[in-house]
Amino acid sequence: MNDPENIATGDDLTKDIDRKGSHSIIGEPEGGSDANANQRCGLVAIVGRPNVGKSTLMNALVGQKVSITSRKAQTTRHRITGIRTLADAEGGGPQFVFVDTPGFQTRHATALNRSLNRTVLGAVGDVDLVLFVVEAGHFGPADAQVLSLLKPGTPVVLLANKLDTVHRRADVAPWLRQMQDRHPFTEFVPMSAKNKGDIERLLAICAKYLPQQPWWYAEDELTDRSEKFLASELVREKLFRLTGDELPYTSTVIIDRFDEEKSKAHGRLLRIAATIVVERDGHKAMVIGEKGERLKRIGTEARQDLEKLLECKVFLELWVKVRSGWADDDARVRSFGYE
Q1: Which residues contact 187 (CB under 8 A, 6 or more apart)?
Q2: Fewest C-beta atoms under 10 Å: which of 109, 168, 180, 248?
Q3: DSSP assignment of 83-148, as one string?
Q4: Strand 252-263 vs strand 187-190: parallel, antiparallel, or unpaired?
């Protein structure tokens, strides 16, 4: 286990350590005796309270946007899987299956929040490693509640994120010593998800915890989520980013149509129709904006991101509808795709 007394206070605030103890393998390895003996693969859950940077971290670890981000708390609502494979010349190496989770909800026991919390609990139930994300130098009641959910016996890395916002890094070491008293963390990783070197260091640390077994996904796969799901998420991201704190987080996006066509001009073309669901007429007017300008911008930015991510031409049509009280209606929450 890392000893916080040995953690430096400059650019390198922590040292890698050898992990002690046994490690469990999830499921039966696929591929039989012909599988590459040098392949490693496993599940790594990313957990923490809302708005600590989990989705930004996930995207940095995967090397591509697979989880949406915004300054609004509770942006992530689903279990998002991001895949990163670091293959060597012989076809071996680690494949990380990262699981981004919603922030655990401690307020407002709505049907939507109950759904989000079930997603968190399901994600941490059977993984090889947990990345417990907090803001460097901070630990509050919401962080403590998430920490209490973690199962004994699963290795947990304390990931002190947003290190770039800490003015005096010398203050981080005593805080880490306090954190060691809260939980037997196997590693301490002060870092910034925006720092490429920190991400590479974190990948090297995570690789030590992956079981030796065949990869679960093809080398070039980035997520197990469908393109239709990614489309709804990217529209919701732009919705939140362009409305800020004006719009309640209970707004959601439903994909009504997702059709693929062949195109001589573009090769591949997607026609997507989506509905933004809000709870009040005032929210609808807010989303549409003056002369429809805000809705148009939401659609344009979502379409541009989709074309970049899916490498095809996209036509995106958006509508806005009011569904009062949907976030506290269990049946409607399920019908909108929440677990």
Answers
A1: 2, 14, 16, 17, 157, 158, 205
A2: 168
A3: EEE---TTS-EEEEEEEE-PPPP-S---HHHHHHHHHHHHHTSS-SEEEEEEETT---HHHHHHHH
A4: unpaired
pTM of the model: 0.67
- Residue the block writes with tokens 């806005």: 320
Residue 24: count other Cβ atoms within 10 Å of its Cβ: 11
Which of 183, 283, 203 has the alpha carbon at shortest distance from 243?
283
Give φ, ψ of 275 to 5 degrees.
-115, 125
Percent of the chain scoring above 70 in pLDDT = 73
If one compares 189 and 113, the residue with the highest pLDDT of the two is 189
Based on the number of CB atoms within 10 Å of its own CB, is 225 exposed (0-12), middle (13-18) or buried (19 or more)? middle
170-195, pLDDT tens digit by residue? 888 899 999 999 999 999 999 998 99
Residues in the chain: 339
